[in-house]
Every structure is written in structure tokens, then in C-alpha cells.
Amino acid sequence: MAWELIEVPGNLNPSLQDSTVDVLATKIDPKLANTLIRQLSQVCPLENLRHVKRVRRRTECGGKSELSIILCVSTGSEPCSIQFSEDLQKIVDTYQLSPFTAKVAKYCATSKEEWEEQCKLWPTSYHPAHDLDIVRGFQEEELPSIFNCMKTAIQLSKAGNAAIIIDPSSMQIIAKATDQTHKHDTPEEGNTFSEANADVTCSLNASTDNDCNLSLPGSFLSKRNSLNMEISCINPWGWMRKRTCEQKPLPCDGCFAWHPLRHAPMVAIENAAERDRTMFPSSTSITKPDSNGNPENCCDNEPAKRLKTDTKDNEQSSSESFRGDLSETSRPYLCTGFDIYLVWEPCTMCAMALVHHRFKRVFYAFPNPVTGALGGVYRLHGERSLNHHYNVFRVSVPEAYSNGLKYCSKEC
Amino acid sequence: MATAFMEQALEQAKFALDNLEVPVGCVIVEDGKVISSGSNKTNATRNATRHAEMEAIDVLLREWQSMGLDQTQVAEKFAGCDLYVTCEPCIMCATALSIIGIREVYFGCANDKFGGCGSIMSLHKGDTSSSDDLSGSQASKPKGFKCTGGIMAEEAVALFRCFYEQGNPNAPRPHRPVRTPQQ
Lengths: 412, 183
Known about the structure:
The complex is a heterodimer of chains A (412) and B (183).
Chain A: E1 4-7, E2 20-28, H1 33-43, E3 55-59, E4 65-73, H2 86-94, E5 99-105, H3 112-121, H4 132-136, H5 143-156, E6 162-167, E7 172-178, H6 193-198, H7 202-205, H8 218-223, H9 264-279, H10 301-319, E8 339-344, H11 348-356, E9 361-366, E10 391-396, H12 399-402, H13 405-411
Parallel strand pairs in A: 8-9, 9-10
Antiparallel strand pairs in A: 1-10, 2-4, 2-5, 3-4, 6-7, 6-8
Helix pairs in contact in A: 9-10
Chain B: H1 2-18, E1 25-30, E2 33-39, H2 42-45, H3 52-66, H4 71-78, E3 81-87, H5 91-100, E4 104-109, E5 146-148, H6 153-166
Parallel strand pairs in B: 3-4, 4-5
Antiparallel strand pairs in B: 1-2, 1-3
Helix pairs in contact in B: 1-6
Region (Disordered) (chain A): 280-327
Keywords (chain A): tRNA processing
Organism (chain A): Sorghum bicolor
């Protein structure tokens, strides 16, 4: 079994039968088409059915074409005339139209096949992406680097999940993180913005031919085949049962010894935001202190913490300046255009956070059958009401790779 | 009683609005007393996950950890807390509230784009599946919470209207011109 990339569709078997809307339509004299289209689009625009064409043309056996036009969306009440607004009724009366009920597709087609099916009911418009690769969401030549990024994420994951945010245009690591829901014995590594930057690209450019050099964490290997309850996204409610053996005072101001919501994707997003604030500090002007003083606002310890890290990272940002294009215009809006690699499929909290943060693509290696939001249990990315949508892919990891070192060492 | 707490949540939302943030605010109540509050800080932090609920939760986690409470004790505390928030928690926050095990949520207006308490998903219902699946054995079950919407919804919506009239300074281009804030 080789490395493989499988797209996780946003909706399973979208059946056209289940997603139609009833409309009232009428046959019209082709000479009237222009007049009626104009009048109806004013009197009764098809607000939520913009993909549906107002007029249907059908060619009859005699070669004569027959035109029908949508009057309005049907509410199902009988007789249909009671559904007409006053203006619409006027049009119906003036041209002596006789309405009938028709079905149209409720949603815009996402593929050519779907569109062809829709048009059998009533014509819709369909705008395929110009490039086939855009439809697929990745390009063939990207595959090696995609697999490479996933390897990096897997190596980062120790006891829990791991997340790596990548700018695919430069293959630069924007941020990385591991689960921080509970305190691990090992010191947290790679969870800060500065550390993420320390090895920018080098780990990604490292040769991948020799997988034997990769040291996979033992805990990861042993739990690979059973469900791993250490993964925050798989067992989000598990934090309550944990007890820290020795309860110490807070490690540092504003830090948490443990935190039920600090799943790897959430921490990675926070690190990316910190990088953004550090690299593009000028736009902090949008935060103005509350001059009136708001006694109820007790959340202001956050900026204080930032201030500390900001000064620390100033050196960092000056060393970054060789990129030279860090003007406001090049500042990304959140994670627009970025990819995130997760070892485990995210829960609904993390998947929604990825929507909020405008990721372009989400890659995960192992599905989450307990709370998975991107195929495991839910398909959040297929939820049409959301204001942003990303593509989701599962990276299939070869057994030989995930079974790791011992297998490898024999081979080498 | 609910409206008194919601008024305080609305105060938080106004604070967000004054700071050019999407105006959502919340308070967390324990034993009839407000013990934490939060306002949306997504623009200031450039972190789109810093919703009011997340801010208010972090205040308590920080406080309780500094008091030396462990996970079990913190879970017990959250189980006695109610949240009042001006807008229906989104799918992310609804999951987060379920994860920390909040007792009850009262919200103002519904969130028909990404509401997680009935509008788009119903995460407040907790474990509704007949889950004797592979998970059942080890994983803790999803926790539900009681959820009531529509409390002072008009006030919450009015704040959103204010915000969108002044324009979101952090929205991706192209967007409507931002009206400069009056001092």
C-alpha cells in the first residue's frame, strides 16, 4: 500500500430527488419571453434559486420549441392562484397564463454530472472551475509535498494529535502545535510561534526517500490501530477524568497547565495568529483601549500576555525581514489560502475553528469515528449555510510507514 | 432574572462594538452571580476563534487553576455554571460548551449561518446516537446542556446592524468602505 490522497466529499450521495423545490410555471408564447422575464424578475425575483434559469425551452417532436417560465416558488397551497402577489396576479391575468407545478434543483450543481441531472428537471446554470485541478483541489505534482507535510505532522505527534499550518505557495510552515489538553511529562515542543519558524521549510525539504530515518513515537505506533483516547479530538470529554498528579501553581502568567479546549488545531490557529500579530504589527491600531474603562471587562489579561511575547519576538520579526514583502497588503486575512495537516480528523469544535480561520484545504491521516466532523461522523465542510468552505482530504498512510521503525530497520 | 444577566452580556457586546469587533458578548453565572464575562476579540487577536464564550471560559480556567483546582474539580464547577450570550453559540463554541460541561445556555438571537444550538447543528443535545459503536467503551459521552434562545434578541440584532453599518475593518477585500470611528 502506497501513500494516497483521497478527497472526503462534503455530502454523501447527493440525491436530486431529496433536494428539489416546487415552483409554479407556465407555458408562454416565445414572443412574450423578453417582456415576461423583465416583469417577473421585478415582481418576483428567485432570491434563493439564482442557479435556476427562469425560462425552459423544450423542443417538441415537430421541431417547434416550447417555452415555459417560472412565475414563483410554490408554497403548495391550493388553488395556486392564492399564492400570487397582486402584481403577479396582474401578469397572469393580462397574458392569460395557466400555471402548473414544476420541480427545480434546490442547490447549485457541484459537478457536470449533477448539473446534467438537474437540467432534466429544469435548466440550471453551472460554472465549472476553469482548471480541472481546482475542482480536484490539488495538483498531481503537489502530491510528494503533501505526503511530506503529513509525515512531518505524524512525527510531531507524540501522545496526542498534531497540527501543521502550511502556506502552499511557499511551502512555508506558518505554525504547528500538538494537543495541550493536559500536561504531558515531556516538555511541549514545537508549540510556539518562534519554534515553528526555527525550522521553516528545512524539515519539509528533507529527503523523503529514506523513511527509515524518521523516528516515529512509540506511543503513536502502539495506538495506531486501536482508537487512541489520548487524542483530544477523539475523546474531548476525557479531560474531566484526568488528574494532574502534582498540582503546581500556574507555570507562567496567562499560561495554562492544562486546558480542555486546547486541541492541536486550536493551538496551531493561536500560534498562526501570534505570528500574524508579530509579523504585521502595524495593524494593531484597530484595538483601542476603552477610555471609559469598563469594570466588567475582566478579560483584559490577554493583551498583557501578548505584550510580553511581542517584545520577545521582536528579534524574530527583524530576522524575518529578509522576506522584504511584509507590507500590509501581503498580510494574509487569517489563514486564507493556507493548508492544515492534522494527524487525526478534527472534532466539530476544531473543524468549525478551521472554517472561521478560512483555511483552504484540510488534510488528515486517520479518521475520527467518535466525534469526527469531516467525514467520520459529520460532514461540516458540506454544510451550505457556512460562510466559508474548505476541501478535505484523507492522506492514506502506508502500513509499512506507520508500523514504523522496527519494520524499517530490518529493511535497511 | 434572565434579562438582567442578558443585559450584562449585551454590555459586553457593546464593548466589542466600541472596539470594532463583531458585537457578541456573554457572562457566566454561578449561584446567581456573574463570575466571568467575555466579548468577541477576533479582530484584535487576529484569531477567529476568540469568540466571547472562549474568552469567558479562559477567565475561569485561569482563575480556577491558579486556585489549585484540578480537572475533576474544575469540571464540577462548570457543571454548576450557566452562560448568557447575546447570539446563539456557533458550532465551535457549542462544542466547547459541551466539552467543558456547562449546565445551561441562554442566548439572544439565533445564528442561522453557523449556530450550533439548533440552527445548523444541535450540539446542545449531547449524545443522541445509539452509540454502542466502537467508541462506546472508552470515550466519555458527549455532554448536552439545556438551551433557551430568544432572550432580548432584538437588542442583540440591533448591535449587529450597527456593526455592519460601520463596516468590518478586518473583512477580506473587497468590502464596503469602513467609516472612521468618531472619537
